[in-house]
Amino acid sequence: MSDKCAFEEVHSQPPAAQQKNLETFLHEQKDIPHSLPSSPDFVKLTNIGLLTNNSIPWAVVRPESALQVSRIVAYLVANRIPFTVRSGGNNFFGKSQISNTVCIDLRSISFCEVNNDGKTARIGGGILFEKLISDLQSKGYSAVTGMVPPIGFVGWSSYGGYGPFAWLHGLGHESILGAKVVDWRGCIVDADADLLKGIRGAGGGFGVIVELTIRIFSQGNLLSGHIIFDESDTKNTVANICRETERQLLRDPAESLYMAPLFIVTPLGKAPFCQVMWLHEDQEQGRREIENITKLGPFVHTTVKNTTHLGAIDDFRDNFAMPGMIGNVGTISVLSLTEEVIDVIAHHVDIMPNEIGLGFAIHSTREAPREAAQASCFPATERHFMLEFLGCVDSEEKVKMTDKWLKDFMEAIRGTNQANILPSTYINLTPPGQNTLRRAYGPNYGFLLSLKKKYDPRGVFNTAPPFVTLASEEEFLFSKMVKI
């Protein structure tokens, strides 16, 4: 298909005609499952996990192969129908589903094939953490993931990918070794070095990622779970947890205990707790490290146990399933948990309203190896802490109150030493308007725009982060077709 035919030979039709023709096309594609708003499974398919999204796409199309994705993209582009791509089970800002568009849901493309070298695997563009780890673990392997089972690996990893394995194996984007992409013409292409660099940090902004080749590793049993404290001395407990998290990150990776502070209001209350994971063979040493963590505050209980990677994320799901929440989220990254930053965190966690779903979490990673940093457009290559602000509650009436807490908290962090605050923010948690492409991608900004012009000259994938959330009017010069 030539560049010309998709946009210059087809005149734009009225939306009603586009929708009718789309339904006719989908009806003719007997081998491609799809769901319309009138379909019984439509509501279930459009559930985005956490935040309520009232957008109603014209259709959810569920391809089962790269060839089917190719066919769908070619039709949508030729008929000037904007579309979004969904590769997982959760989306904070609802941008995987937009009214009067088509949602290409990749979750049926969920294969996992370990290559003969035993060091890499080919995975489908819609595979979720739970299936990926289940498939790999059955063969004696594992891969870097986050902790929430229904999150899609591609969307998580390609925009950064924080998680408990980052301290040993790097962030998710560092595990990406190859990719197959359906481009704006509907062609299936193997990503070259430049496109791979763009995918590692800017994800699906250049095409539909239908397959990745990722690095895998052997992983035996591990220690994982939560350490829970009483809320009678919240301020001091939170401060101690933050200091210990910084100390562990600075240690030798072969000896450190992964810590992810989680200060989240659950049905059991707002008691401080921390996710820990020991990935090393010497589990007795791990238990000693975990015992030390219990001394950081008035200790109540621990769920830490000897388990597997899959068991650890299953436990996390069982403890934190809170669907149907509404509200806002935000993120700021800092180089260090300084005493100034810790004071702000401890104060705002202490005064956090006691509303289920509200919370704050700290993610972290070590400095990226030079080669990995140069092969990615992910800008935060320094050792740093990614702060996650969760202003999520169960009713509209509570949002105003929780929004004030969230905004005051973030402003207080922004008011700390500016040299400690990174200009880049984690794309998956950055709301529209909270950052800019130029600031978020820094020295890679020019590369990002040139790559966009090369691989998506008509702006077909402008509905994908980071463009849908961060791009300005001037940066949307590629096409007005999908301006949201």
List keywords for this structure.
17 helices; Uridine Diphospho-n-acetylenolpyruvylglucosamine Reductase, domain 3; 5-stranded antiparallel beta sheet; about 35% helix; single chain; 8-stranded antiparallel beta sheet; alpha+beta; disordered N terminus; FAD-linked_Oxidoreductase; about 475 residues; flavoprotein; disordered C terminus; Vanillyl-alcohol Oxidase, Chain A, domain 3
Outline the structure in words.
This protein is of the alpha+beta class and 484 residues long. Among the domains are: 112-218, Uridine Diphospho-n-acetylenolpyruvylglucosamine Reductase, domain 3 (2-Layer Sandwich); 222-429, Vanillyl-alcohol Oxidase, Chain A, domain 3 (3-Layer(aba) Sandwich), CATH 3.40.462. The chain has 17 helices and 19 strands. Strands 12, 13, 14, 15, 16, 17, 18 and 19 form an eight-stranded antiparallel sheet that branches. A hairpin with an 8-residue loop joins strand 13 (258-264) and strand 14. Helix 5 runs antiparallel to helix 11 (309-320). Mean pLDDT is 91; it is low at 1-11 and 478-484.
The termini sit apart by: 26 Å
Unreliable sequence segments? 1-11, 478-484
CATH topology of one domain: Vanillyl-alcohol Oxidase, Chain A, domain 3
Rounded to the nearest angstrom, the radius of gyration is 22 Å
Strand content: 15-25%
* Share of residues in helices: 25-40%
Q: Which class do the helix and strand fractions yield?
A: alpha+beta
* Overall 3D shape: globular
The counted number of beta strands is: 19
Tally of helical runs: 17
Average pLDDT, rounded to a whole number, is 91
Q: Kindly provide the name of the CATH class of one domain.
A: Alpha Beta
The CATH architecture category of one domain equals: 3-Layer(aba) Sandwich
Q: Major sheet, described briefly?
A: 8 strands, antiparallel
